[in-house]
Amino acid sequence: MPTAKPTDAPIDLKAAPARRTRGGPKGLRITDVAAQAGVSPITVSRVFNNPASVAPETLERVRQVVQKLGYVPNRLAGGLSSARSRLIAAIVPTVAHSLFSETIQVFSETMSRAGYEVLLALSGYSDTNEESLLDTVLSRRPEGVLLTGVAHTDSLRERLRNVGIPVVETWDMTDTPIDMLVGFSHYQIGVAVAERFLARGAKRPGLISASDVRALARRAGFRERLAQAGMTEVAEAIVAPPSSVATGKSALPRLLQDAPDVDAVFCGSDLLAIGALGAARRMGLEVPGRLAICGFGDLEFATETMPRLTTVRVDGMRIGLSAARALLDRLDGGLERAFVDVGFRVVGRESG
Amino acid sequence: MPTAKPTDAPIDLKAAPARRTRGGPKGLRITDVAAQAGVSPITVSRVFNNPASVAPETLERVRQVVQKLGYVPNRLAGGLSSARSRLIAAIVPTVAHSLFSETIQVFSETMSRAGYEVLLALSGYSDTNEESLLDTVLSRRPEGVLLTGVAHTDSLRERLRNVGIPVVETWDMTDTPIDMLVGFSHYQIGVAVAERFLARGAKRPGLISASDVRALARRAGFRERLAQAGMTEVAEAIVAPPSSVATGKSALPRLLQDAPDVDAVFCGSDLLAIGALGAARRMGLEVPGRLAICGFGDLEFATETMPRLTTVRVDGMRIGLSAARALLDRLDGGLERAFVDVGFRVVGRESG
DNA sequence: CTGAAAGCGCTTACAG
DNA sequence: CTGAAAGCGCTTACAG
Fold this sequence. Notes:
Chains A, B: GO terms for molecular function: DNA-binding transcription factor activity; transcription cis-regulatory region binding. Two copies of one chain form a homodimer. By secondary structure, chain A is an alpha/beta fold.
């Protein structure tokens, strides 16, 4: 028999110092690196955040240890301590099949090149929850926010201003942005398309559009410009977002049933326009002779494959880039508030 | 004269307690809410994280104060303290014009419904920096990671396994995933398209493809299946990502210059296919009679508007949903490792 | 159902 | 160029 009977001796759990380790033993900490490298944690911190202030050999030694151990600093801790999260929030309705995704792409690339990461929040098309989404986002303490559109509740606007971080609103236009703005006027697009139709000699313009804020702004410009020309009745088919080819395909026959003499239709998106074009073909309506169709977005697809389509080109990438730059300028201590109208262009291939 | 001359008396900076406030006085803290509500900070914390454990009246009172003050908890602090970041990282090549954006959309929606936020990291098409991107991402201590593809360096794979968080690889197939997988076989797609071409009686198949890993896997399946049928020479035009309509349009003439008798071409994406279709038209080649064209992606655009195009349908949304579910199951304590082949379908309208 | 104490892993501001 | 002390704003684990 051995001299001790381990199983008999009760283990005094209380005697063991209560470990307060919570995440488990997995995580490497800055102190682990510091110990191995024979420096203080502060020096390790500097290696990551201000390498120029560290002696070359020290730098090298610490880096070797970091590499060897596979240490990755904890930015939750770093952010809490420094009050700099290095996070930028982007709130967009959707990234699926949309021009917004180009904006996000370029925005995100630009931000990450500058050392920031992008927290993506998808708001859908309901404005209801934008504010609770903002709360969720603000809980990460982002250093800047990109917003889509300019239609926000007063409470959201005020809260965002109180937070004191730079904000860019995008993809729309207003005289009273929360902070900065990079966008264009949907209303003016409606006006421009109306003028295009008028110039073509359209007698009975119609509209197929989703019911979101920005589509409604285009509609308003469209209708008001037509009203100036004496056309007060505009046939409309309003569809629920998200727009799709299928939606456009089914909307056109409905529109023409209400108003058989419609000879030019402004669609809320290229997808809708393509659907409408398909429907027109099926109905034997010559495009653009009998029926002119104008979309919105200028997707490469649409314009390359549907030469008889007119559309409105908007530069989503430029919006992403300008918005990122505006934010970065301010984060670098710049005082200027960017206000950029990127404009748009009605692109018609049917006449060229 | 007043009894004191403030400007004369030197201000003893040392005497003032060194304020360690760094973020400035702006931020509301949990203690502010606690004080106003007459409870301890712990109770306020519970109101957010475990409301069921708080007495109804206390709950109500605290919520009122939160509302009134506009308090938003600091998740940097919360995450550090609890070792739960509530963050999920998604690393994808791009979100612009791509099926990945559908995946991200659904993934993000599903995750946010479950109380997580998505940190989006765009890797581009270079594998070079995927590892440094991963470091950046891991510094936020995400609780799970979505990866695109299965081609990762050993070091990345090992590191990710060491971190011990659930990982889903997507959009590809392998026998040896890092952890979980939701995808499909690009090789098998190549095989299937080859078989389609063979069934159509193609004598001289060709390929227009980008050079990324997954496109190359499709190419391999395509070539190997054709080789089995005795066709060892396959004309190819390899293009640099990202694919676009323009690229496809310029690639087809090059391909046909090398191999004028090509009668069926497998394109790496629908965009390339559309470009090729445009070029074929311009060259007076009947599609699919003289030249069959097959794309990849089944974009609604492509199939609705180009009835003579064949394509390969892949369900990006399903990938996003399944990947999210796999991660969530594991985060909820599930032990199962998802391994899902979502498959694909060759969709040909030219024969229907 | 509620709270006092300790600690999460960093960085700031100071001093040398 | 480097470091000891204090603190960022929460939550855990315990106790009652």
